[in-house]
Amino acid sequence: MALTDQDIEQIEQYLLGELTREEKGQVEERIKNDPEFAEEVEFMRDVILATREKGKEEIDQFFGNNDQENATKEENKTEVQKNNNDGSSKKKIINMLKNWIKRFKNN
Q: Cα 42 to chain center, whole Å?
């Protein structure tokens, strides 16, 4: 059974910590009982981790490996901006990930 857009959205919310305790429990139960769903959760988790790692690498390259203090300041600035954001940036990233996942699966 193919996963629906609603399933993908639920996985994203789960990985981003946006679900209620009850919803989180339901997702975790489904992970245990649905191998296809569990595989998609792992795939999306890996994509998020890889994206974060790539971002850290780009910050290091931009500021140079010896300028860690400036990189940390920039990361903190980005974190403050993220916390002050209305969520639209997060949604943009999620939409980019969705499009990337769809293209990846279709190839």
A: 11
Angle between helices 68-84 and 35-63 (to 10 degrees): 130
For residue 85, tell me if it sits in a domain: yes
Does residue 1 belong to any structural domain of this protein?
no
Helices 35-63 and 5-15 cross at an angle (nearest 10°) of: 50
For residue 17, being part of any structural domain is answered with: no
In whole angstroms, give the CA distance from residue 60 to residue 74: 11
**Number of structural domains in the chain:** 1
Q: Which DSSP letter does residue 67 get? A: -
Residue range 51-72, pLDDT digits in tens? 888 777 777 777 765 455 555 6
Q: In terms of residue numbers, what domain contains 74?
A: 42-107
